[in-house]
Request: fold
Amino acid sequence: MNLETIHYKTPIGIAEIIGNKDGIQSVSVINNDLLTSLIAVSSNTSKTLQNCAIQLDEFFKGERTKFDLKLNPQGTIFQQKVWKELLEIPFGKTRSYLQQTKQIGDVKAIRAVASANGKNPIWIIIPCHRVIGSDGSLTGYAGGVWRKKWLLKHESGCKQQTLF
Reply:
């Protein structure tokens, strides 16, 4: 089945959404200054991709805390297991890599889990940004640590206020 690609402008970069009727295979942030505006989703775009763009929009507006999408990420059995566990981390909460390895049942697999997190193909929806270091540090993030910080702050419900 042919894959479709659409782009959606978010507050932290352009999201590239790839998938088909079988589900979303990839949502990634791209650093392309040429794509400066929201690329309209046409009526020819599959319902799967349209729905993904709508739900991402609701997430960034603070109207959605849980995604309801058909996902179809491509990866090894181990990566699939790690990504499935990421979906269990509640909105607005974090989990350490060590806690994540305990959840999948293998505390010795911390590097493999971190590697699988780094290869997560579905940005935000499979929330690898919610995994932090045991000491609370914002360790690594494929989209950039600044985006991870932004996403965690966005999910915390903490709105920026000015002093003056």
